[in-house]
Amino acid sequence: MDLCETRNQLLNEWKEATALYDRLVASVVAQIGVMKKEDLDHLMETVGVAANFAERMRKNFELHLETHNCANQGRNRSRRRKVSI
Ligand SMILES: [Zn+2]
């Protein structure tokens, strides 16, 4: 197999950033009505930072695919699976 390692790494970073964001959102939801308003606001700010970070990771990943042209490397994408109901 000839997978692009940078691509894998960027994908992992994006996934981790997204997972972090998800965890933060979950903790905000859990703290609503529990935390003081100002603490919650502070937490929301952190969520915003994490969202930006995840977005940046996504862009990094997409930019790499564009410039390196390795999007279809490795496995052939079978995205067109038909779903029968
Ligand atoms: Zn690549």
Characterization of the model:
The chain is mainly α and 85 residues long. It has one domain. It has 2 helices and no strands. The radius of gyration is 18 Å and the shape is elongated. The mean pLDDT is 88. The protein binds zinc ion. Zinc ion binds next to helix 1 and helix 2.
Features:
elongated; mainly alpha; binds zinc ion; 85 residues; 69% helix; single chain
Radius of gyration: 18 Å
Q: Main sheet?
A: none
Low-confidence stretches: none
Mean model confidence by pLDDT: 88
Oligomer: single chain
User: Which hetero ligands occur in this complex?
Assistant: zinc ion
Order of helices and strands: HH
The domain tally reads: 1
Kindly state the percentage of residues in helix.
Answer: 55-70%
Distance between the termini: 35 Å
Number of helices, counting only DSSP H or I runs of 4 residues or more: 2
**Secondary structural class:** mainly alpha
Strand coverage percent: under 5%
Topology:
Layout: H1 5-31, H2 37-68
The protein binds zinc ion.
